[in-house]
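Reply to dn_fold:

You asked what the input looked like. This is it:
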Amino acid sequence: MSKLLKNKLSRRIILLAAVLIVLFGFTVYKDQKTLIESGAGTALNPVQSVLYTVNKRMESFIDFFLRYEEVKEENESLLLENIELKANLRNYEALKTENERLREMFNFKNRADQYDYVGVNVIGRSGGGIITSYIIDRGEEDGLLSGMVIMTEEGIVGQITETAKTWSLVETLSSENIAIHVKSTDDASISGILEGHIGSGQTQMAKISFLPIDSSIKEGDTIVTSGLGRFYPPDFLVGTVVRVEEDKGNLMKTAIVETAVDFKRAAQLFVVKPKSMGDVEY
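and this is what came back:
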């Protein structure tokens, strides 16, 4: 019985192979065809097409299983390569950000090369929702003194108000203990003393008080340091005027300023140190 089945299977395979050979070798393209040849070719072409498609799919299916391990290794290799490329991209973005930050500081330094800039890190904050002060990781051992200015690449932060051997306390422009002389870049005649101010909704602001009632200061004006007293380098960004309030009774105006630096996000700061300490009395 087993032999009979094997013989039948063998005959079927041989027959199927013979049919395939005949069908694949049947179509021969000539310059001219008889009506009968053309009709036979037309009748058999759909069958050939189906068999050819099935054959190709079987080849692809078998090839996939034969190359399975190879494809698996290639996929694993590509996955690792993709992970490495993503890591390199993150490193590139971090280096790009660092270079941009250093470029900004280099531009600051070119504008006021009579100062040195010492990098410090924030190790503590106070003020709750309103950041009014930081603790930084350098102090008297590094030559820092109370009164020295603190900034980031974005602009002025505030100044040192207390020092110890290895740390210092920095009060931000939002603190009412800080007062600096500033000016407007839009009108050189506009200048005044900027102090800390808590806006509505506990927002961090600053204000320029006691401006003349006829002052041309307006919303959108850019406020920078004036450089008077040499505590603060001149022309460093402080912020932007967001509102002007009039006190007609006292014939004065007050400009509310949004600071350029986001005190909640600042992490690395710079201490501004005059190269000639004799010019400034801290």
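Residues 114-275 form a domain with the Thrombin, subunit H fold (CATH 2.40.10.340).
Hope that clears it up.
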